Amino acid sequence: MKEIRRQIKEKEFHKVYLLTGDESYLILQAKELLTHALVAEGDEMNYAVFEESKIDLQQLRELAMTFPLFAEKRVLVLDRTGILKTGKDTLIDIFQTLPETTCMIICEPEIDKRSKAYKWIKKNGYVGEFLKKDQTEKVLMRWVAALLGREKKQIRESDVRFFLERVGDDMFQIKNETDKLISYVGERPEITREDIEAITSGEVQNKIFDLVAAIAEGNKRQALAYYDDLILLKEPPMRILFLIVRQYRILLLIANMRGLHKPDKDIAQAAGIPVFAIRKNAAQLRGYTMSSLEHCIASCMQIEEEVKTGRIGDQIGLETLIVGLSERIGI
After folding, report:
1. Which tens digit of pLDDT belongs to each residue from 69-91?
2. Could you tell me the pTM of the whole model?
3. How far is CA 75 from the centre of its chain?
4. Are residues 178 and 105 in the same domain?
5. Is 17 in a helix, a strand, or coil?
6. Which range of residues forms the domain containing residue 261?
């Protein structure tokens, strides 16, 4: 992103941009930065977007070769069209004959780096790769602090970390929750942990985490209260069961891999959670043994079977499971 900002500042634009990777928020930001720099807002004559659709390469060539009207640049955005997978030689020919007045921005989450088209763009254009694994806890913490700082809001570093633990590592979600946080505190300059708890308390995954923690403590009343909260959030009982099982499996995986002295980065990748979430989940392990985790998963599977075969209703089945696990967790 820094390089794209530099190109915009210096007005050193490439004819072809490829924005790729699994961090869709940053791809969107890069695309918007480029389009706003290249064409005026509302200039539909010099701006065309192709989204998730088949592209006629002849039509694309004609558009690409058309000079802009009353502007310096014509911008063509190809968003998740899969164009790099087809018509490779024709596409490269289009790239090679682009006039200086045309800029093509290709957004593809997944690409084949062995393809001729990719190699051509890498050599002659610009490839921006945006990956979730690069958005570490430190990077995300700086970003949240910057978002809040623009609105003249202050927050402690420990509370930024707590905020991320509550909302996860999805950048769209982080941005939305940050905006909610800013609106919630109003004119007040300082953001507290209580503010964070107030606006993120409805998050489903947090409730699941808290429910599993309450079971570990043998606190069936609190565990059932979290279950009721999830029902109020319109979560179906069987989805709640799925998420409970997922949480237990994450804990079991962390316990196993830490026992093998695997680094948190590898554990996070295997568990499908952010690296910074490992610490929070590992802390929850203190309430469980390996055998109790295996027992919890087996009990969940048994309830699932009973619900599917009609021997028990889904809601009463989940309540029975939660009470049973809370009472027997010490085994």
Report:
1. 888 999 999 999 888 887 568 88
2. 0.70
3. 28
4. no
5. strand
6. 204-328
